[in-house]
Design goal:
Structural class: mainly alpha
Radius of gyration: 38 Å
Mean pLDDT: 79
Order of helices and strands: HHHHHHHHHHHHHHHHHHHHHHHH
Number of strands: 0
Distance between the termini: 78 Å
Low-confidence stretches: 1-10, 16-24
């Protein structure tokens, strides 16, 4: 739409407004209808200008339908294009829901509003609002029982309290409850009940959530997880839906973590972070919280406690942002209610003034004809005074009732605010407890290191005794040939000959072994010479552990002792040192 069309449309609207009073009463609805059409066409700038023009008529308009549409469009625009001010957008949507419920003739619009609000209360973990919205959806479903979109929404709303319960208690039974409602929604899709409704984006997220929550179990069903991920990818590839891409990347990272593939899980978690950075408008605080929590678990599993704590702190930072947004929402709702009360009070005063003016006018007219109709004037005056007293009493009663209602709403808002602050304090206490646990773990690690040192000394004594037993065989055959034959047999036994280890083994000679003995502090055992040759020909730690039937952790300890005996520093490479002596 070009600028000429925009100016022409605005001129047409203002020409219609100026014709007569009945059309002027529909001005707000006209502006909002045009704004809705332009938002659907993607002309967001023009739609915003129309909504700004509609704001002029919002206070003087008596059309509930126009007011409901105005708040709905403003709420959507703010959430989609100004996510940092989303609290104001959700406040508009709550007002819109109130007016559409009054009208009662547009269930599809009510469903759309409930769906958007459900996302908001899910992020805020506001169980009271969740139950209210769920009750509205269930009541609406009774009026429109064949609406599949509404059934899908109700299944999603049922999941939210279970998600909150699992987050707080980590009870695996709640995962089964979540998966039950997710499966009900997926069965609707797979049976064709949702065809033609444009629900592919929501269905892709349902499959992803199925995979995520199954992966959170202690004994996950990886066949179900893989099947859900494949179906989610099939749907997501046909869509341009960034949120599905983000959740899919996060789910794959979570699945790799559940399988123990920590390196791949870490890589996918970083990719998820980049996707969130590119699309911050999709409730990004909660996405960051989930992803940073997963990264913290990954580094805990890697025993990198420092990095795990850093990501735990980042998670807490975004949780704090979410809580601050909740407080802002409560404060905004409180201020909005105060402003609504002021507007209502002003309208009441204005109505009273109009009635007073009308009364004075009637009194003046009656005074002009007092000489002619004195008796009739007296009777009419008595009736008018009685009517006025009744109106005044009614207005006073209404004002007292509204004041009482506003006080109750204010007290409720304050209680919710204090509840949010209390939850945040509890989170801080949990973090302090985790810090103490970390200190205990570090102390346990130091004790384990001391035990490893003592175990290494015992192993060395044992190997020295073994060395003395093998000295008898050294007289009959070259030490180097015996060791090479043993290692070659191990390589052939575990099928490592294809990796080129045997040619490297043939380069080893007696001079190499004598060089090792010279540089080794003390008497090196035959077993240690075998380990050195394995490292020299390029065998991996896991392969050495498999050949000698020991744990990979023991191989790491062995490397540490060899470096110490050869006088190498922590920054020097053992393999380079060994290869330099071949």
């Amino acid at each position: 739409m070009n600028n000429g069309q925009t100016a022409s449309d605005l001129d047409s609207i203002h020409n219609i407004i100026g014709l007569n009073t009945p059309i002027k009463e529909n001005t707000l609805f006209s502006f909002c209808t045009l704004a809705h059409m332009n938002m659907n066409a993607g002309n967001m700038a023009y739609a915003k200008s129309l909504l700004d023009s509609a704001t002029v008529y919002i206070d003087e308009n008596k059309d509930i339908k126009g007011t409901a549409l105005y708040h709905y469009l403003n709420g959507l625009y703010i959430i989609q294009h100004n996510p940092d001010n989303s609290n104001e957008g959700y406040n508009h949507l709550y007002k819109s829901l109130y007016y559409y419920e009054q009208l009662g003739d547009n269930p599809n619009m009510i469903i759309n509003i409930i769906q958007v609000l459900a996302n908001e209360v899910s992020i805020r973990e506001d169980t009271v609002s969740i139950n209210n919205i769920l009750a509205k959806a269930v009541a609406l479903n009774k009026q429109t029982p064949e609406n599949k979109t509404l059934e899908l929404l109700i299944n999603g709303l049922h999941c939210i309290p279970y998600k909150i319960n699992y987050k707080n208690n980590k009870n695996e039974n709640t995962i089964d409850s979540i998966l039950f409602h997710k499966k009900k929604s997926i069965e609707m899709y797979e049976s064709g009940q949702l065809n033609g409704l444009g629900m592919e984006a929501n269905i892709s997220l349902l499959y992803i959530h199925m995979a995520e929550y199954e992966a959170m179990k202690k004994e996950p069903d990886f066949s179900l997880i893989n099947n859900s991920i494949i179906k989610a990818k099939e749907i997501a590839e046909k869509l341009n839906y960034p949120l599905a891409d983000i959740r899919l990347s996060y789910a794959q990272s979570l699945i790799n973590y559940a399988k123990g593939n920590l390196t791949q899980a870490e890589k996918l978690a970083f990719s998820t972070n980049e996707l969130i950075d590119n699309y911050r408008k999709f409730g990004y605080q909660q996405l960051y919280v989930d992803n940073y929590e997963l990264l913290s678990h990954i580094y805990e599993a890697k025993e990198n406690h420092k990095t795990a704590l850093e990501y735990e702190e980042l998670k807490s930072k975004y949780e704090l942002e979410i809580r601050n947004n909740e407080i802002k929402t409560i404060e905004l709702q409180f201020l909005t209610d105060l402003k609504d009360a002021e507007v209502t009070n002003l309208k009441t005063q204005n109505s009273f003034q109009k009635k007073t003016t009308s009364f004075i006018t009637i009194t003046c007219i009656l005074l002009l004809i007092v000489t002619i109709l004195l008796l009739l004037l007296f009777s009419a005056k008595q009736k008018s005074l009685g009517h006025h007293n009744e109106l005044e009493k009614k207005a006073k009663d209404d004002a007292n009732l509204k004041l009482k209602l506003k006080k109750e709403q204010t007290e409720k808002a304050l209680l919710e605010k204090y509840e949010v602050l209390s939850d945040f304090h509890l989170k801080e206490m949990e973090l302090i407890g985790k810090s103490k646990e970390l200190e205990l773990l570090e102390a346990e690690k130091m004790e384990l290191d001391r035990q490893v040192e003592r175990y290494a000394e015992k192993i060395e004594e044992y190997e020295q005794s073994m060395h003395r037993q093998q000295q008898v065989n050294e007289k009959e055959q070259s030490m180097c040939n015996i060791i090479k034959e043993d290692i070659e047999q191990l390589i052939n036994k575990y099928s490592y000959e294809t990796k080129g280890y045997i040619p490297n083994l043939n380069k080893i000679n007696d001079a190499y072994i004598n060089c090792l003995r010279e540089k080794y502090e003390g008497q090196i055992s035959v077993q240690y010479i075998k380990y050195c040759i394995c490292f020299t020909i390029g065998m991996e730690i896991n392969e050495v552990a498999e050949c000698f039937c020991i744990e990979p952790a023991s191989v790491h300890g062995l490397r540490y002792r060899l470096k110490k005996k050869f006088g190498l520093g922590t920054d020097e490479n053992l393999e380079l040192f060994l290869k330099s002596n071949v």
